[in-house]
Amino acid sequence: MDFKWEEAEECLRRTVSSISDEKIIDLLHTYLRECYVLARPTLQQVSSLTVRLAQQPVKTVKELRDGGKIKVDMTTNTKKKENVLKLEQFIRDSLKQEIFRADVTPLAEEAERRVYKIFSNELPMNLIRKKKEIGNFILACAQLVWKMTIQQPMLTFDVSPPTFNPLLHEPLVPNYQVKKGKRIAAYAIPILRGAKDKKLYKHLGIFYHRGTIFGVIGSTTSLFIYGTYYYMNRRLYIGDKLKYGCLLNNENDIVLPYQRRPKLEQRLCDVLSSSPTNLFYIVNGQKGTGKTRTIVELIKSRMSSDGNETWMLYVPVRSAKVFPKDLYFAFNLKLEWYLKNLLNYTMNNILESILEDIEQATKEFNEQTGKLPVIVIDNFENLEEENEEFVRTLLLKANEWAIRNSIKVVFVSSSNYSSCLRLLENHQTLWKRSGSTLTIRDLTFEESFSYLNNPITIFDEDGNYKCKLKMDKSRICEIISLVGGRLEYLERFKKDWILGINFEETAQQLIEKENERLLIAYKTSEKWKIMIKIGKSKDGIFLEDIHKEFSEEEIHNLLILGVLKLKKSNGKLKLKFDSRLSKRVFEERMTK
């Protein structure tokens, strides 16, 4: 075929700035097809390499050299090694999305310049003659791969000779004017088009590009195996885990006896029950008030009953980045997790996928038992701070499940004014399905005294009973006077007492930590003015009153810092010190 590269390049230059995305894609089809004919067979190897690079980065120079069939002597010339590394970096850079969004023309010029520099007098002569074609071909391949992966719903290939190119995207069904064996692909395409998991099947479609019976059989078999696994085992795993309960990543270092709180436990049991309520719930409370410990103990008590179907899943949010992974691993769906990451799914799509599977898996069990599975998402504030898209997805799904009465979701958060509450304010339908917010507060004086006064059993090195230790009552009163009923601080004092650390040292460490928080507020005059105003009040200030003088951002920063908290009083939000220790340290600082 007689092809003039300069004419095609000029055509691309003239039209790229004025035509739509669809026309650009069509133009690139022609552009790549002509490049393929011009530089075949060398460019066929480069295109194959580019396909792999679009799916996963180059790992070694050896893969570039052997996989791309670019013959370079890697042992005799150090400079040649460097040039191949440059080529590797160039292809990798070309596949970055930021570059793909830019205009094609300046990138083509830059590709020509860089490839000429890399190839000049270093590679075999048949590549040197085609340096310009190769540079622009790689660039165009990268452009098209990005557009097909991100924007197009389905990837298919033209498999008809002699101008076969694995990167060409045909909007209609591919041309099957091929010989015996290839027509089998026509039966597999409807499977691809009807599948929900389009991105997986898009990449499996690469099997077809070899145009052989082995590729067709291989890809069709892969689709069948994956479909069988997806619709059978996957949901059975989910149903089994929910049925008998699952405590995921419960990494709390719990060594002290559990402090029973009967009234709170009764309220939590009502929230965590499997009885249909058409509601989802939010459990709120300051950090260190004992939310996690109480909920975990209640779930454990259900799981410990032999033969009892718990129907509970407890998932603490370590961070937004690993939350979807934790959900998949909770149900032993590790293969699904790695597969979706390999295919570059977004984290929100991965999360939506597992939530949909949970819903489908529980449908049959709901009909049989009449009970609802309960999903407890702890440390929800970590999602609020890092990824509000996850928050919206989970709240909307919890609302949908509440309407259908299929799954009950309980969000446990330590934030003062969480984004889930802000989202609820903006969506009246969500408010209708949200049960009364359960707030977990500090221990009362009696509960705090009972917790510290409980004796600790000591064992010797062989595990034999040795004695029981009990804290001095006067010391207990001093501790409660300093930190109030904040369970986190009470546990710290009790642990240190068991380890032989004296009271003064523990108290000093806690005071220094609190001083560090106050010092951050002290550096900003507006924040410190808010602290002074609240310090002068006896029982805090209503939020609407303090909004008249100070910005919402300054107040929000103090809440995140953990020196202030919001508390409901007479139907209004009141701003107060986070704990008795915070107030005491502030007062000591003001007297200096």
TrEMBL record:
* InterPro entries named among the record's database cross-references: ATPase_dom, P-loop_NTPase
Residue limits of the ATPase domain? 275-491
Q: Do you know which SUPFAM superfamilies this protein is assigned to?
A: P-loop containing nucleoside triphosphate hydrolases
Q: Which GO terms describe its molecular function?
A: ATP binding
| Coiled-coil features, chain-numbered ranges | none
Tell me which PANTHER family the record gives: CHROMOSOME 1, WHOLE GENOME SHOTGUN SEQUENCE, ORC1-LIKE AAA ATPASE DOMAIN-CONTAINING PROTEIN
User: What is the protein's name according to its record?
Assistant: DgyrCDS10338
| Source organism of the structure | Dimorphilus gyrociliatus
Task: Tell me the organism's taxonomic lineage.
Answer: Eukaryota, Metazoa, Spiralia, Lophotrochozoa, Annelida
